[in-house]
Design brief:
The complex is a heterodimer of chains A (about 120) and B (about 150). Chain A contains five helices and five strands, in the order βαβαβαβαβα. Chain A is α/β, with parallel strands linked by helices and about 120 residues long. In chain A, helix 2 runs parallel beside helix 3. The longest helix of chain A has 13 residues. Chain A is globular and about 35 Å long. The chains are: A alpha/beta (about 120), B alpha+beta (about 150).
Chain lengths: ~120, ~150
């Protein structure tokens, strides 16, 4: 599987990649994008299977990215990794089509729980 | 997530010492709670955070990598503060200030609380600011300075 990690922090993209490996998802190809607009280009160019996106980013945020994908495609499996884990945001994410929601800070176990049945 | 030891402390962040800059990540909260959260530390802690995040040696961390790490720490702490404060709020994007001589003001703010920690033995302060209900001039806001 090909996984696209979307986060404006390069440090966080590295942590997410490392945590994926620690959670046992070692055989998948990981790609990166630094904001929602770059992710949209990457998704339309190379169609990853899974998108793991931050919510709060410059240029285009995560929920705008998801809503654009739902509207105009393509529609890879999409989930959020974000510091903002309120019930309101989870509901908005679910309603927009997000399949998982992981709150930062996270652990490999949180990845396994959220990604079970997705990867 | 980073494997660093974090303990509460009674000791505030000391002033900068020779050769060590202060790093401070700020993130705004808007909505039901209006204010900001700041995470402040000195150079050794900033390097420790960057090294842990990027998986590198302390001395290998560049200024850009430290800036990224401190901004992300502010983002994470801001997100946690938002959960504790409750209501409907949104986080802004982090701003990072570094240096051994600087002054910054958060306009129309008041100090809510300053929390002291030690992370892997290094002092770290977390400052929570709220909107000043009295309004007032922007310059009346909370000041951060190092000189």
């Amino acid at each position: 599987m090909r996984i696209l990690i979307v986060d404006d922090s390069r440090a966080m993209r590295m942590i997410i990649t490392r945590t994926l490996r620690q959670a046992g998802y070692k055989e998948h190809t990981v790609e990166e994008a630094g904001d929602g607009a770059a992710a949209l280009d990457a998704i339309r160019a190379s169609a990853p299977d899974i998108v793991m996106s931050d919510w709060n980013m410059p240029v285009m945020n995560g929920i705008e990215l998801l809503e654009e994908l739902q509207k105009n495609g393509p529609t890879p499996t999409f989930g959020f990794l974000t510091t903002e884990g309120s019930d309101e945001m989870r509901e908005r994410a679910r309603n927009a089509g997000a399949k998982f929601f992981i709150t930062k800070p996270f652990t490999p176990e949180a990845f396994q729980e959220a990604l079970a049945g997705v990867i | 997530m980073l494997g660093l030891d974090l303990q509460c402390s009674d000791t505030p962040l000391p002033p900068v010492s020779a050769g060590h800059r202060r790093w401070s990540g700020h993130i705004a909260l808007s909505g039901d709670w209006r204010g900001a959260v700041a995470v402040a530390c000195l150079e050794p802690m900033a390097r420790t955070a960057a090294a842990a995040m990027f998986g590198m040696e302390l001395e290998a961390a560049t200024a850009a990598e430290i800036q990224d790490a401190i901004g992300e720490l502010a983002n994470i702490v801001g997100g946690q503060a938002k959960m504790v404060l409750g209501g409907s709020c949104a986080l802004g994007l982090p701003v990072v200030i570094e240096g051994d001589v600087f002054e910054a003001t958060v306009p129309h703010s008041r100090l809510v609380v300053t929390l002291h920690f030690r992370c892997d033995g290094h002092p770290v302060d977390v400052v929570i600011l709220g909107a000043d209900p009295r309004g007032g001039a922007p310059a009346d806001g909370v000041h951060f300075s190092e000189n």
